[in-house]
C-alpha cells in the first residue's frame, strides 16, 4: 500500500528534467537561472501536432551547436500543449498560465526572460542554430537590463 501511495504521489508531480537538457518546471527553471546567472529560454510547443515545432526541434534545438550554446548560456524550459498526449494537470495549468502571461498566440514560440525582470523578448530567428543563437545574443542585452 505504501508503494502504491508513493507511485501515485510521484505521478502527480510534473516531470522536472528531460533527458535533452530541458526542464518542464517553471520554478525549477527560475531557481537554476538565478543560481547560474542565466536567462531562461521558454519553448512553447505543441509537441504531438505542430509540424513547425517538430521542424524547429530537428533543425535547431536538437543540433549540437545549439545544445552546446544552451548548456553554457541558458536554462531551457519546455512548455508543451499536446493535443493527444496525456499531461499532468499541474503541468498543463502551469503552461497555460505562462502562455497567458507572455501572450503566446501560437506554436512554436521561443521567449527569452531573465528571472526577476519584467522584460521578455520573443526569439524569431528560427532557421538554424546560428540564427537562433544570434537572436538570443542580440535580444539578451534587452532582457538583462
Describe this structure in words.
The chain is an alpha/beta fold and 145 residues long. The chain has helices at 2-12, 26-36, 51-61, 64-73, 89-101, 129-143, and strands at residues 22-23, 40-45, 75-80, 109-113, 120-123. A five-stranded mixed β-sheet has the order 1-3-2-4-5, with helices on both faces. The longest helix is centred in the last third of the chain and has 15 residues, at 129-143. The model is unreliable at 1-15 (pLDDT under 50).
Q: What is the topology?
A:
Blueprint: H1 2-12, E1 22-23, H2 26-36, E2 40-45, H3 51-61, H4 64-73, E3 75-80, H5 89-101, E4 109-113, E5 120-123, H6 129-143
Parallel strand pairs: 1-3, 2-3
Antiparallel strand pairs: 2-4, 4-5
Q: Tell me the helix content.
A: 40-55%
Give the spatial strand order of the biggest sheet.
Answer: 1-3-2-4-5
Largest sheet: 5 strands, mixed
Distance between the termini: 52 Å
Strand content: 15-25%
Number of β-strand runs:
5
Whole-number mean pLDDT = 87
CATH class: Alpha Beta
CATH superfamily heading: Glutaredoxin
Uncertain residue segments: 1-15
- Count, helices: 6
Amino acid at each position: 500500500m505504501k508503494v502504491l501511495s508513493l507511485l501515485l504521489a510521484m505521478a502527480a508531480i510534473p516531470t522536472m528534467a528531460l533527458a535533452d537538457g530541458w526542464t518542464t518546471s517553471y520554478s525549477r527553471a527560475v531557481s537554476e537561472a538565478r543560481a547560474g546567472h542565466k536567462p531562461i529560454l521558454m519553448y512553447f510547443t505543441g509537441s504531438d501536432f505542430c509540424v513547425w515545432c517538430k521542424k524547429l526541434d530537428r533543425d535547431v534545438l536538437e543540433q549540437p551547436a545549439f545544445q552546446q550554446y544552451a548548456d553554457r548560456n541558458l536554462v531551457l524550459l519546455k512548455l508543451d500543449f499536446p493535443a493527444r498526449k496525456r499531461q499532468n494537470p499541474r503541468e498543463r495549468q502551469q503552461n497555460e498560465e505562462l502562455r497567458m502571461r507572455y501572450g503566446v498566440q501560437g506554436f512554436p514560440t521561443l521567449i527569452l526572460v531573465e528571472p526577476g525582470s519584467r522584460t521578455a523578448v520573443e526569439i524569431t530567428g528560427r532557421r538554424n542554430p546560428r540564427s537562433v543563437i544570434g537572436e538570443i545574443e542580440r535580444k539578451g542585452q534587452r532582457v538583462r537590463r
